[in-house]
Amino acid sequence: MSRSARAQSVSRESAAGVAMLTLQRSHKRNALSAALVGELRAALAEADADGSIRVIAIQGAGTDFCAGADLEEIAATQTRGLEAGLTDARHLGALFREIRQASRPVVAIVRGRALGGGCGLATACDLVLASETATFGYPEVHLGFVPALVMALLRRKVGESAAFELAVRGHRIDAAEAASIGLVTRVLPDEGFGPAVDRYLRDLARRPPGAVALTKRLFYDIEGADFADAIARGAEVNAAARLSDECRDGVRRFLRKRGD
What we know:
By secondary structure, the chain is α/β, with parallel strands linked by helices. It has helices spanning about 35-50, 70-80, 80-100, 115-125, 150-160, 160-170, 175-180, 195-205, 210-220, 225-240, 245-260, and strands at about 1-5, 10-15, 20-25, 55-60, 105-110, 115, 125-130, 135, 170-175, 185-190. Strand 1 (about 1-5) and strand 2 form a beta hairpin. Helix 1 packs parallel to helix 3, helix 5 (about 150-160) crosses helix 6 (about 160-170) and helix 9 runs antiparallel to helix 10. Mean pLDDT is about 95; it is low at about 1-5.
């Protein structure tokens, strides 16, 4: 296993095609400071550009995934006016976009609390693996704040009614409920959580990377398209995929095996 020592807020470990990015602010429950967001954006770009990496995972150090925005930094922007807040918000919004734009699947590994911006970070990921005792929520409304950056993602993932309730009630939900509404991909037992996550990520990393990249791109490219346009885009990807070396090899192996 290789380890790249980044700046203090984010670390990276890589093994078996999986890059694990770890938020390293456990003393603040991995709250999203501007420095952490910047380091995470850089680590994500670095991992996505690494030809040996097939899957990118994000987890939090300590007992929690991420408790949300760093409220001390939020308070500081309140004294500097609208432009300061807008700059800070756009910085986090860029991270959410870049997760979607990455060619590799990005997986959130959630233990403990994923709240506010931390829940937004998990929601921005392509897949979410949660421990059975993990909790999720957008409590911003209790502070007179709004979970604004995640709204576009949240509506798409869980639907209008569930998204609206999460935003206006600000209540917490457990992993089972989060999975039932589509916020979480899989809930795994606390006992053996680490090894189960490792098996899932390594299995995903064994998938042909070109096919996975095309799948992810198509999945998000057809968002908002009408049915005919989505089918047309799918036909283009189908035609391109069948000419790839991965697909040629896969079809050849299948036909040879069937003929045995």
